[in-house]
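Two proteins were folded this term; both appear here.
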Amino acid sequence: MNDHSIFQTAGGLNIKRRSMGLKLFIVCALALAMSIPALFVEDIVEDRTHRAADVVKEIGGHVGGQQTFLGPTLAIPYNIPGDSYPVRHGIYIVFPSQASATVKTRTEERRRSLFKVPVFQSDLKFDASFDLAGVPEAAPPNAVLDWSHAEFIVGVTDARGAQSDGILTTGGKSFTFSPATVAPSLSLGLDPSQQLKLILFGAKPANFQPGMQFVISASLRFSGAQRIAVLAYGKTTHLAMQGDWPNPSFDGGFLPVNRTISPSGFTADWTVPFIARGVRAEGSNEAITGLDATSLGVSFVELADPYQSVTRSLKYILLFLGLIFLSYFVFEVTAGKSVHPAQYALVGIAQIIFYLLLLSLAERLGFDFGFLIAGAATVALLSANAGWIFVSHTQAVRASVVFTLLYTLIYLLLRLEDNALLVGAIASFLAVAAAMYFTRSIDWYGTLPDAAAPNE
């Protein structure tokens, strides 16, 4: 009896080969079992992802982090008299009737070890037209507005990103913003755990009175990391933004009405009419909490985040293990030589190591080059292993072609995104159809015939 016609147990007993049908079930069970180590690889990816997030937070803490801006808004303190004065006080907010802003950003990547974070410097110019006729029309009952302490305010989420003093200009005169006297900050949002907190800066160019009209502009220069956004601070708001980042992601409450993206950068324009903003033109600070949902934002993202791409590839690991094991099973059938389950396990381990190689290389070279090197090395190993198992150069060449196509499929699935499910389903269907065809003559109750002479 030939060595390839038996399975040997750990105790040295020889057990005759079971039927090919049972062998296929064993191979399927091994594929399921080998997907368990992928969980440990996924833990490593998650750990590296958290480390990258820590680096982002650390660098962002120095340059300002994700920045959201509130353009010039009139803030008027008020009191509500009562038996013991004052019973309650607050801030009455008046938004400009027309608002127009321009934002220009310059980006660069800051590195810390293997991790990199996109940071930006931005120049912001806000224009606003105010008409105080009819103010206050939405004040709380019995509220008394303190016009003598009213001021124009601007807001930002992280003041540490300031690159220069903010300037307010009106009537041909310029004024420097300083910490607001009406309130140090303003919180927007109904959910306390997700509120947007803005640090306020104010300027008081004149003594305000009801019925006055103002046309003002404000200039700010701030740095930040990853994302920049402007709130729709006017009844009608127009925002024009441009930058040199080639992979912007537009987000927030409204998407731009016009945008262009090129390798040299992007431009985008937003227009938010009053009817779409969903926040009234004036009111107490408690009444304008919905303003946080009107952000007009751009995120500076990495087009191919290695951790996100590796995580997505791990979601297909059972499919790929199954296809690789199925390929070896077809080789086994067509070559007429039995493959021991231990050899299938080694093939599965090689696939797990592929993901470790991919992660470590993608951190240094990017996902595309990392996948090319890790995939080529794994295909070469699996193909050579097929040649060693079946003692056949022909089988090694066949394996090389099959596994090259398989790893190309993996890469395409990761890049197609929206069409990944469709392509994966079609590829799996074709793989099973091919396996059915090549195994059409098998007696599933029988055993493999003796192997033919090696094809050198």
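Next, the second protein.
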Amino acid sequence: MTSIIKGALALGVAAAALATPASASHSWGNYHWARPGNPFTLKLGDNVDSNWDSYLAVASTDWSASTVLDTTIVPGGTTGRRCRATAGRIEVCNAAYGQNGWLGLASISANGDHITQATVKLNDSYYNMAQYNTPEWRQMVMCQEIGHDFGLDHQDTNQTNPNLGTCMDYTSNPSGPPSNLKPNQHDYDQLVSIYSHGDSSTTIGMGINGAVADIGDTPSTWGRPVRFLRDGRPEVYMRLDGPGRVTLTHVIWAQGEGPRGR
């Protein structure tokens, strides 16, 4: 069985596990950054403007409360508009990417199960609107997309369920109560589970820019949908980048927007 097929199957298993979000595993398949041991530090490339800097800083601090990983904010290696990945780290970007349905994208490129590079894209075409131009929406989406790039999935994807008090929860009301602006203990526990083993190699800090094609602003560049929300909108896309190599993209749609139908 190829790594690509195993990855797709792992996504399906994770989706089934989400039926009981308060206690279920919410890892993103088996995807993780390779490293010899813990704790390890991931660089967050700052390609965001002053409207987003404070939210990036808070998310970095919140995720660094994990016992297995830390994050550090470093100068960006790309531009907000292009958001080109850099191997070995996460590039965080914002721009007006267009009113194409999505608030945020989290993309990971993987060789087998090992994440090699990742990006976060925040779509100002929506955050310039009154509905989403709030501290709560900005903080929740920033926190959630960075969490995906560690290998975390959602704890729940039903926006009408009560908030779980974690940014890894879909919601129509990030401020709650409880608020969905930060990770919760279940997120930290899941990171411990994901990173409970050591690897013989590392994919952190390699610093090679543009190892695979950029993730664009529309689904045509994200590959094929491999997982769907209950309302039929695609949630995860997979693009094949070569033997054993894939790029996966988590998308958070604006309310009522996004394609439907499998």
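The two ends are 25 Å apart (CA to CA). The longest strand covers residues 102-111. These notes refer to the second protein only.
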